[in-house]
Structure formats: C-alpha cells, structure tokens
Design goal:
The chain is mainly α and about 220 residues long. It folds into 2 domains: about 80 residues, no CATH class; about 130 residues, Leucine-rich Repeat Variant (Alpha Horseshoe). The chain contains 14 helices and no strands. The N and C termini lie far apart (about 45 Å).
Length: about 220
C-alpha cells in the first residue's frame, strides 16, 4: 500500500462528528479527520501485511501533518530504523496530547534511546515536547518488564524538578509518570508515595505540585 492510497483511505474514514467530541477532550482539531484508534490500528495491520518496507512511508505520513496519519506513522514504523534525530524531530512537532502519547507508547518507548530521551525531553520548554518526556517515563514503567527499580527511581529527580509546571498537559503527564512508576510493582509503591510527599514539602504553594502529589498519593495508597 503506497502513500497516496493510505491518504485516500484515511480521508474515506473521516468522521466530522468525531472531531467535535475529540475537541471536548482537548485533542487538537487542526488537520484532524476524526478517525478512531481501532480503525487506525486495523489500517496499520493492513499496511504491514501488504508493505514490506514501512519506515520511509511512516516518515512521509508524519510530514503530511494530518493528525491521524501521524498516529498511524507510529503504528507502522520499523523500530530498528528509528533514529534519535527522528525522535527529536517528531517530539518537537507534537501539537496534541493524544499524538504525543500514542507515539511514545507504540514506538518511542521500544527504542534503545527511550531512557535517554525521557530525561532529555523533560527539560524542553514546549508543552507537548516536555510532555513527551514524562509520557515516555510512564510508558516505559508500563511496558518495560525487565527494568530495575533503581532505573525507574532515577526518574523521581525529574518528576520533582518539574512538578511546579502549571501547564495542563505537562502536569498531567508528570502525575501520570509518578503514578505509573508506583503501580509498576509493589516494591515501587512506597518510594513513589515518598516522592509525592517530598513534592508537597518542596512546593507547598504550587497548585500543580499539590495536584500531582495528592492525586498520586490517593491512587497509590489504594494498592
């Protein structure tokens, strides 16, 4: 399946009514077709079945700037061909939380550069670029079955450092990262709660820090 056929297929799946619903959940409606994730996953399977080489196709789909084409790019890209340069380019161009999270969870967290990029991107200034760092932390904690407790605990430094970022999509991602580490395994629950308590002590007047810490403590203490 070539690029033009995929774009034609995406346009045929367009659902304008879904775009309104997506916007209510804070999803960027610019260049958006309103296609559901299950339909995109189905299309990705078809592409992989019919197409041997998908990396360059993924790059072209990303450059189309079409919302769903970018998510699809993350579904079909060839993991062994993804470079740090590509990751930096895509992350710097994230403009919606769902594209950011889908790319991190379905592609970036499986690369050999994932832990390095997670740390680097938390220091970026752009909202969704920075979110990508914490989305990577969350998805690595979720998906990496072999990661050690100590390696995940290294992320507490970045979580504490950026807990005062008041931007909605950053603070929610910081919270997600902390909760996901705490839910990884029982041995990480108490250290994650302790990290949250330290955040409250460090930033007693920050609304963002209070949200991140209190929400994490509430969820993790239920375990």
């Amino acid at each position: 399946m070539n690029y033009s056929k995929i774009i034609k297929k995406l346009n045929s799946l367009s659902n304008p009514q879904n775009i309104e619903g997506m916007a209510r959940f804070g999803i960027n409606s610019k260049n958006t077709l309103g296609i559901s994730i299950p339909n995109l996953r189905k299309l990705a399977k078809e592409i992989k079945k019919e197409t041997k080489e998908t990396h360059n196709l993924a790059l072209k789909l990303w450059d189309s700037k079409i919302h769903e084409a970018r998510i699809l790019a993350g579904f079909i890209d060839e993991l062994d061909k993804v470079t740090e340069k590509q990751m930096d380019k895509w992350a710097s161009q994230f403009d919606s939380w769902d594209v950011c999270d889908q790319i991190c969870a379905n592609l970036f967290d499986k690369t050999p550069f994932a832990y390095k990029k997670a740390k680097e991107w938390t220091d970026e200034n752009k909202e969704f670029y920075k979110r990508a760092g914490f989305a990577l932390i969350a998805t690595l904690a979720w998906h990496d079955k072999k990661v050690s407790d100590e390696k995940l605990k290294e992320f507490f430094l970045y979580i504490k450092k950026h807990a005062i970022d008041e931007r909605n999509y950053v603070k929610k991602a910081v919270n997600w990262a902390l909760r996901q580490i705490g839910k990884k395994r029982q041995s990480l629950t108490e250290p994650s709660i302790k990290c949250a308590e330290e955040i409250l002590k460090l930033y007693p007047n920050s609304k963002s820090a209070k949200f991140i810490a209190n929400d994490a403590i509430r969820e993790l203490k239920k375990r």
